[in-house]
Amino acid sequence: MTIRVLVAEDQAAVRAALVMILRAEPGFEVVGQAADGEEAVRLALELRPDVVLMDVQMPRLDGVSATRQVVAAGAAQVLVLTTFDLDEYVYGALRAGAAGFLLKDLEADTLVEGIRTVARGDGMLAPSVTRRLIGAFARPERPVGPEARAAVAGLTGREREVLACVGAGLSNGEIAARLEMAEATTKTHVSRILAKLRLRNRVQAAILAQDLGLTI
């Protein structure tokens, strides 16, 4: 299966490097390039790629706002690019529905694996920097609405355990080992949790778990 990618990056040299890496990788197709946020949204809606690789700091429309529009339209999964692992813009992007983020100083293999991960519907929660990021902006003392609390209360005991693990930044494999169940079963639980809580992706589930102070 070919993964169709839209690259949104305002720096021409960086954009060219990203495109070169992806075009050299089997199973990837770069379907478009955008130099600003408005163009990224327009092309995402027009081309319907599998993944938008989205820079957060762009002219005309920032990456956070562009991410929100792309995700709201159901046009693609969004993987955010940032210069700093605690860039405040990333907080908003994840809240807007981005599936995760990568640092710009990443290795080519990490970029490729990150896009594959997001394309199959998983969040970028494995790296330690992601765990720090989630912990930095999702605190237990943040208010959680009664509807969200009621939805979480409606989860099964096992689903609440899985949600707590997601909030801790564990991968499906790590959750399976922690809770002593098959990885395929873990994936099923995560999918059901997202559906029951009406969340777009795994990252938002992790944020909610952190907001509620769920622990493992």
TrEMBL record:
<protein>
    <submittedName>
        <fullName>DNA-binding response regulator</fullName>
    </submittedName>
</protein>
<keyword id="KW-0805">Transcription regulation</keyword>
<dbReference type="InterPro" id="IPR000792">
    <property type="entry name" value="Tscrpt_reg_LuxR_C"/>
</dbReference>
<keyword id="KW-0597">Phosphoprotein</keyword>
<feature type="domain" description="HTH luxR-type">
    <location>
        <begin position="148"/>
        <end position="213"/>
    </location>
</feature>
<dbReference type="GO" id="GO:0000160">
    <property type="term" value="P:phosphorelay signal transduction system"/>
</dbReference>
<feature type="modified residue" description="4-aspartylphosphate">
    <location>
        <position position="55"/>
    </location>
</feature>
<dbReference type="InterPro" id="IPR001789">
    <property type="entry name" value="Sig_transdc_resp-reg_receiver"/>
</dbReference>
<dbReference type="InterPro" id="IPR016032">
    <property type="entry name" value="Sig_transdc_resp-reg_C-effctor"/>
</dbReference>
<feature type="domain" description="Response regulatory">
    <location>
        <begin position="4"/>
        <end position="119"/>
    </location>
</feature>
<dbReference type="InterPro" id="IPR039420">
    <property type="entry name" value="WalR-like"/>
</dbReference>
<dbReference type="InterPro" id="IPR058245">
    <property type="entry name" value="NreC/VraR/RcsB-like_REC"/>
</dbReference>
<dbReference type="GO" id="GO:0006355">
    <property type="term" value="P:regulation of DNA-templated transcription"/>
</dbReference>
<dbReference type="Pfam" id="PF00196">
    <property type="entry name" value="GerE"/>
</dbReference>
<dbReference type="Pfam" id="PF00072">
    <property type="entry name" value="Response_reg"/>
</dbReference>
<keyword id="KW-0238">DNA-binding</keyword>
<dbReference type="InterPro" id="IPR011006">
    <property type="entry name" value="CheY-like_superfamily"/>
</dbReference>
<dbReference type="GO" id="GO:0003677">
    <property type="term" value="F:DNA binding"/>
</dbReference>
<keyword id="KW-0804">Transcription</keyword>
